[in-house]
Write a structure and sequence with these properties.
Elements: E1 10-16, E2 19-25, H1 31-45, H2 47-52, H3 58-72, E3 78-84, E4 87-100, H4 112-125, H5 130-134, E5 138-147, H6 156-162, H7 164-171, E6 175-180, H8 183-191, E7 195-201, H9 202-207, E8 219-226
Parallel strand pairs: 5-6
Antiparallel strand pairs: 1-2, 2-3, 3-4, 4-5, 6-8, 7-8
Helix pairs in contact: 1-3, 3-4
């Protein structure tokens, strides 16, 4: 997806307490490092992954890692770095892809727990087709927004999420969609201008035959934002 765009593009740079922070495109040399961050954090903290205990099952860890690896290869993901005395540390990022309305699934979903997570995401997406809702043929889709634990509190999540807009403008994409699964990420997305188009509780998904706890009223939300 690089095309003629400048890559990697820097979207924001600021200083706080003697530290420089940079939000930019994720370069290929940091793909594996970012996958480690995603597995270590989302694999245990994210609602669907933690509920299915995905991180305890090697086949599913490999399956979700392979999925992220394919997504990152599209070169449409965002990274946030801390820089001190010229030394950069990956602090977080957002795995993103550009999806087209008529795309067919091309990545095999391996591992029972990863399949359950993926089916949960698809369940809420099927309630409201984001392409039809937004009237767009292509969208930026997020598959994992994460800030490393040691950097939480630095308010990096909003800056990473907001970098989607200039990224989309480079790629001539006019909207973004994501299933936000945790309360904190849902509130963050709302503050950044995303609106809810569909939601489902884990109980509702269990009633539909998915392997989630009955009676669990935590909800996941499909949220979208259109860029002017």
């Amino acid at each position: 997806m690089k095309g003629d765009r400048i890559f990697p593009q820097e979207y924001e740079r600021w200083e706080a307490d003697g530290v420089t922070w940079i939000v930019q495109d994720l370069p290929p040399e940091d793909d594996e490092k970012f996958i480690e961050v995603l597995v270590d954090h989302l694999g245990t903290d994210e609602v669907l992954c933690s509920t299915t205990r995905l991180s305890e099952h090697p086949e599913s860890v490999k399956g979700i890692s392979d999925y992220w690896r394919v997504c990152l290869a599209e070169r449409t993901s965002i990274a946030c770095y801390r820089e001190i005395d010229g030394v950069r540390t990956l602090a977080g990022g957002n795995c993103c892809v550009i999806a087209k309305k008529d795309d067919k699934p091309s990545i095999e979903i391996q591992g029972d727990e990863w399949k359950t997570v993926f089916e949960g995401l698809k369940f809420v997406e099927d309630k409201c087709n984001p392409f039809e809702y937004l009237g767009e043929d292509k969208l930026l889709v997020g598959y994992g927004l994460v800030v490393k634990r040691e950097f939480r509190g630095a308010k990096l999540g909003a800056r990473i999420l907001n970098a989607r807009e200039p990224l989309c403008k480079q790629l001539n994409v006019k909207a973004a969609t994501t299933v936000f699964t945790g309360i904190s990420s849902q509130k963050l997305a709302a503050r950044c201008g995303y609106i809810v188009t569909a939601e489902a509780t884990l109980h509702e998904m269990s009633q539909a035959g998915l392997k989630y706890p009955k009676g669990d009223q935590r909800s996941i939300k499909l949220m979208v934002k259109k860029f002017e």
